[in-house]
Amino acid sequence: DTHTKIRFSGGDTIVLQTGGSERLTIDSSGRLLVNGATSNNAFSGGDDLIIGNSSGNTRSGLTLVSNSGQDGGVYFSDGTSVGNAHVAGQIVYDHDGDYMRFFTVASERLRITSAGKVGINESSPLGKLHVKSGDSGVSAVGSSADELVLENDTNAGMSILSATNGEGGINFGDSDDVN
User: Fold this and answer.
1) Confidence band, pLDDT 50/70/90 cuts, at residue 62
2) What is the three-state SS of the chain?
């Protein structure tokens, strides 16, 4: 097959070719380039793996496949220990619960549920956006006020800014007043 090759294109570089096109390249810097990508296509601080290219009218992507009862993710480590001790940053999709989680300092900080609700420091957001600070124990919100939930041990607050002659509103109450 003259369209399938493993070749050495020069200067410590290995190229795998199928269908007459470069599909995988390992260059002299140890970078892995996929589908004709070049190191010119990437940010220099993140060019160890480069997928796709800018030629033609094509899309590029990366797919992580996991069992439907498991999760899949991208993990960030500083490499200073064995195991998960220093996997501080994570982006994880849970197939079983259909939600996305974002971690910093090895703790979940943001979750997007299958219903599109976003929880910041809250894994079960009560509203479209639920921002939690501390552990106030709020367990429900009124159905007419579930767009934004601010939760804190002591005080919670927000500012609503609108254009001149615009309107804005907010309901105040504590968790005992929720109906």
Assistant:
1) confident
2) CCCCEEEEEECCEEEEEECCEEEEEECCCCCEEECCCCHHHCCHHHCCEEECCCCCCCCCCCCCCCCCCCEEEEEEECCCCCCCCCEEEEEEEECCCCEEEEEECCEEEEEECCCCCEEECCCCCCCCEEEEECCCCCCCCCCCCCCEEEEECCCCCCCCCCCCCCCCCCCCCCHHHCC
Tokens 């309107």 sit on residue: 167
Cα distance between residue 138 and residue 175, in whole Å: 6
pTM of the predicted structure, to 2 decimals: 0.70
Which pLDDT value is given to residue 168? 65
Burial (0-12, 13-18, 19+ Cβ within 10 Å), 144: exposed
pLDDT digits (tens, 9 = 90+) for 65-81: 999 999 999 988 877 76
Quick count: other Cβ atoms within 10 Å of Cβ 139?
9
Are 106 and 120 in contact by the 8 Å Cβ rule? The answer is no
Nearest 5°: phi and psi at 83? 85, -155
